[in-house]
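Supplementary Methods S3. Complex input for the magnesium ion-bound model.
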Amino acid sequence: MSNATNDTQEKSFLGLLLTAGCDSFPQALWRSLIAAVWFVFLTFPIMVIRVNTIEHTVVWHWQRMGYVAVGIFFGSFVWRWLLARKELKKDAASRESKAESLLTRIQNNPTSKYLLLALIALLAVAGPMKFSLFGSKLQLLNLYQTNIMISCLVYIVLGLGLNIVVGLAGLLDLGYVAFYGVGAYAYALCNMHWGVGFWAMLPVGAVLGALLGLLLGFPVLRLKGDYLAIVTLGFGEIIRLVLENWGDVTMGPSGISNIDRPALFGIKLGIIGSTHYMYYIMIGLLVLTIFCVNRLQNSRIGRAWLALREDEIACQAMGIDKVKTKLMAFALGATWAGMAGVVFAAKTTFINPASFTFWESAIILSIVVIGGMGSIRGVIAGAVILILVPEYLRDFAQFRMLLFGSIMVVVMVFRPQGLISAKRKLYTYQAKPAGAANE
Amino acid sequence: MNNPVLNVNNVSKDFGGIRALDEVDLVVGDKEIVALIGPNGAGKTTFFNCITGIYVPTSGDVLIDPEGTGSPLRVNGKKPNVVTELGMARTFQNIRLFPSMTALENVMIGTHCRTRSSVWGAVSRNRATRREEQAVIQKSYELLRLVGLEDLVNELASNIPYGKQRRLEIARALATDPFLLLLDEPAAGMNPHETKELEGLILEIRETFGISVMLIEHDMKMVMSVSDRIYVLDYGRMIADGTPREIAENPEVIKAYLGEEHDD
Ligand SMILES: Nc1ncnc2c1ncn2[C@@H]1O[C@H](COP(=O)(O)OP(=O)(O)OP(=O)(O)O)[C@@H](O)[C@H]1O
Ligand SMILES: [Mg+2]
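Predicted complex, serialized as structure tokens:
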């Protein structure tokens, strides 16, 4: 019994599955039993009791209790096995997942890299188009799906923006949605009062976001970690409360409607046309974001952000101006939220403060954390999972949030570094022969 | 002595009621290697922190004169990054590298205050930025080669063995183009062979870059052989200074410091 946990490596697959993480099989059995009972108790109110509001009766789904018990009982064996396997793997040299190393391999080979990029570009462009292939009509995304895709793209842009602040510079910002909201309201108000168009407001949104980022940056320069998180959270709430209560200007909780959709060379498009147009605008904005963020993170400034995240004292001692670097991160992160806000207002044509609650900040942060802090590919993967999965799970309406939560827990337990972790750029240099002069 | 590049006058530092540094005077000359020794808790690291801007001295002056103009600049109270930009770069007793950046990137960070490319340069990657970036990479690589880490250029700092991490810190500090390199216990955790190599490296750095070096060190053998002059700190007070020979024969030093060392 004493060395039962030590020799897990030599055990057969079945033996490991049955006793992983426990001293003996009876103990494993006992633990699974406890877990099953506990989960039955926890899920009792949502799984078993159903209130029929029309007939004012309570329907009891007793059989569901059984499903939960059996599911958890066997599931807990698998869970412990997965945990044990992860422990074993931890010592192994490569912590990369299979998907990750495949991606790396594709990226390292120029041919396959450009082939993959071309394929993605083709799919992205063809997305909402209707075309006929061998006589059959084909459309990758219908109108509804195109709309979902647009919001997914908006979240990727938001995630990439927040990634600068949280992932690269290591500043935990829980009020990011404020910049998004201000961008959206800026467009809505300017459009309502002065009829300013979408294209004119897009850069204005970016500048507004950056300015607001600086404004938030100044008072929190001295704060770190939890304290920074609390203050930024407060900042986000302040902006939302202002939007909600400054009725004369923002129209209060009822919001602003009839916001213009973007016009194509002055022509107003119909609902389908403008949805497609919006989709391509977002693709364009996303490409721009990826381009800029990628270049920034491998630049002098990006390295300074990383240094700030890794060790603030060493970073300063190496001659980096902490104030400038932090403010730049806040401003450049908020820029993208400002632009995404303008797009959001133009897409929905109606906004109210309810779209800019803390929940949005939490989602965007989850995208960054689950995807992989500081990793562009990670943020994209995170947004796709966290935004698209709940959409396709609409059929399981009541359990959507439960599943959402489960995904988060599973990812955080098994891949704390995120789905696709950040990779540092490998530099090439001229290895000069010894004795060559220093430039 | 030739013209001093660093001149510390009467510097004191209090932590609440504790006086960690008590009216300390110290001078470092051009291209001089100076050691600062003293028992544990004597205030050596605190001294480094005071002259590099991490702490603000309670009183006294820290003056620098890298060009030898005769009109020194007062640096106490300036921020650490400003002090580094003025030309004093340091390493840390408890290694403070950037663990998830590569060795090369760690050194590249050191060049930050000597380069200028901005956000626009980063996004547009214009000619000036590309040229600057290339120069930074090349310079950082040369520095890694100087400290003997050319095999670990693209290795994450956290994966590099301990002794080599100390060398990486030296390369990173050198990348800031200092006139004075401050090393806080550079030989800690090194075996005698590595220490010997480090000695050679310190002398080579002075030769190659023509800069001054000040080091805090407990390894007396190394201190005696590498330094031009030695300062001895005890309970925050500077109790002696002089050449290695003078220090080795100073009865007060033997009582305060070397006496303890000679027990074993
Ligand atoms: N931030 C601080 N707050 C309060 N006291 C401090 C602080 N930093 C250092 N001290 C105190 O100052 C004294 C000198 O510490 P310091 O770290 O400078 O010693 P040292 O000479 O570097 O010792 P060692 O050889 O162990 O590195 C110690 O008594 C220490 O407790
Ligand atoms: Mg010390």
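The first strand of chain B starts at residue 4 and ends at 15. Chain B has two domains: 1-87+178-264, 99-176.
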